[in-house]
Request: fold
Amino acid sequence: EDGSTKEYVLIFNKNNTTIVDQYGLLQVVGNKIVDKNNNPISLAGNSFFWSNNGWGGSDFYKASVVSWLKIDWNTTIVRAAMGVEESGGYLESSGSNINRVKTIVDAAIDEGLYVIIDWHTHHAEDYTSESVAFFEEMATLYGDYDNVIYEIYNEPLDVSWDAVIKPYAETIIGAIRAIDSDNIIVVGTPEWSQRVDLAAANPITTYDNIAYTLHFYSVHHTQWLRDRASAALNSGIALFATEWGVLGYTQNDPEAEKWMEWCSDNDISHCSWAVNDKEEEWSIVKPNSNSNGSWNDSELTDAGKLTRSCLLYTSPSPRD
Ligand code: MG
Reply:
């Protein structure tokens, strides 16, 4: 059903032009994320699972998986999710987690894809100095690459935007900007990155190229969250859906369709959660699937099949 897409990917590779070659360094202009020619752009791709040692999802942190997602899913952006304070994460084992994140970032650079470096925690404000050190290292390594987007706080819980998250964000942004003046930085919002209205009411104004995180899972989040997000956009901030999840265990998810339409109408980039084979409804592949990629249809979960068809349909055409 996707023969034409595969054909275009082959043509695309023959010309040796990648998505990042074509669209370049992304910037935030008003409430839009735009390419190097100031045209709004919406990227569609995949988030990896938590990087933590021994959590299973770490097995998929491979260049071959990035390559497969590009070729077979038309993925234009991937997200490396650096686990922080939980077992096997950065605080306990920084070296192995950094190596996994670097594997994904290096692969994305090689393949000409965009890549999000995500500090994947629900308590970032408790680990500000560790976050500064991590992002200084990443900005030093990758700040000159157009591919890279920093995401400094995955999902804050029910904590104050004004008193906790915004001050945390300004500290981390300041550290990144001292090294990398221009790549986009995405900031998480309260209540699992659903309260984009709170960021919209008091946005970060001391730095440029800031977007705010919106996460949606179609089992929980419906029109009310699209309305809230539309209002935030209308107030002037840019949003980035660094995670979203389908209903799971079914390919029939009308809410996913509505969300994809909303993203397309508003030029919102999005990454599907998650590249993993854990037995849970959002994993894109079934337990014990090939951790090198090259999945056949029987290895994809219903969520994986639905997500793949969304990506094949929504990724920007390089012939635009
Ligand atoms: Mg830069």
Summary: The chain has eleven helices and ten strands.
